[in-house]
Amino acid sequence: MDTEAQPTERDRSSAPAPRGTEGRSRFALVSRISQWLPGGRVTLTLLVCLVFLLLLSTFVLQPFQIPSGSMERGLRIGDRIVVNKLAYRFGAQPQRGDVVVFDGTGYFGDADYIKRVVGVGEDRVVCCDKEGRIQVNGRSVDESAFLYPGDGPSGVSFDVVVPAGSLFVLGDHRSASSDSRDHLGSPGGGMIPVEDVIGRADWVVWPTAHWTRLERPDAYARVPGPAGGHG
After folding, report:
1. CA atoms of 191 and 167, how far apart (whole Å)
2. Is 214:74 a contact under the CB 8 Å cutoff?
3. Which is more confidently placed, 39 or 140?
4. Which alpha helices (H) appear in 103-195, and where do they start and end?
5. Among residues 61, 165, 198, 205, which is most buried (max CB within 10 A)?
6. For 84-199, where are the alpha helices, taking DSSP H only?
7. How far apart are CA 223 and CA 68, in angstroms?
8. What are the Cα distances from residue 123, in Å, to 81, 153, 157?
C-alpha cells in the first residue's frame, strides 16, 4: 500500500506563490499603461520625466533667468541660475551676503527679483561711514569684491533698522539697481519679508562660460548681531 501523503486541496491553495509574481504584476501594469498611451513606453517615460521635473521645480530647484544688469558684475543679463528652494526650509534663515530670489509683489513690483541680502531682522544698516562704506550694526563692510567696477556702495544716504522677519536687499550694480533704498517710503519700507523669499541663488549654469557656484562673501562675516553678539 502506498502510504506517501498526497497533497489535499487545502495544501494546494495555501502553497506559497512562486517568487517573482509581484514583480511580474508591476511589469504587467506598466505594459498595460504603455498600451493605453499613444506612443507606448516612450510617452510613458516622457510623462514620468515631466512629473519628476515639475516636482523638482516646485519643491527643490528652480531655474531663473537674470533679467537686468542690477547684479553685475557677478550675474549678467541672460545668465541662467539655479535657485535652491530648500535653502531656507527646516528652520534655516537668509544670511547677510546671500543672493536671494524673492516675490516682490506689493513691495517692489509684481515680479520675481534677485538681490543680495545686506541686513537681516533687527540689523541697523547705515550709509555711509567716513570712507563711503555701508555699516551694519556699527561695522563697516568692504563690498569691493563684488560691487560693479566704478560703483560706490550707495549714492543715497539711509539709516534703517530692519524689522524682525524681514530683509534689507541691494543689487551689486548699485547705480543700476532698484532695491530697498528706492522703496524706503513705500509700503513695507523697502524691506522684504523672509516668507516671500523663493530661495537662494546657488549656481550659474548657463552660458557654460559663466558656470560657477555663488558663494557667500566674507565681507559680512565679522558683522556683529544687533545686540552686540555675532551675526
Report:
1. 5
2. yes
3. 140
4. none
5. 198
6. none
7. 29
8. 28, 17, 16
Element (H, E) at 206: strand 197-206
Is residue 72 within 8 A of residue 176, CB to CB? The reply is yes
Residue found under cell 509574481: 21
The per-residue pLDDT for 172 is 98
DSSP 8-state symbol, 175 = G
Decide if pLDDT at 227 tops 90.
no
Contact 35, 43 (CB under 8 A): no
191 vs 41, 142, 161, 167, CA distance in Å?
A: 50, 22, 10, 5
Which residues are catalytic, by number? Answer: 70, 115
Q: CA torsion, points 36, 40, 45, 50, in degrees to nearest 10? A: -60
3-state DSSP: the chain helix, strand, coil percent, rounded to 5? Answer: 25, 25, 50
Q: Provide the CB-side half-sphere exposure for 174 (13 A, CA).
A: 18
Residue 4 in grid coordinates: 506517501
Calpha distance 226→136 (Å, rounded): 9
The mean pLDDT of 110-123, rounded to a whole number, is 97
Residues in the chain, total: 231
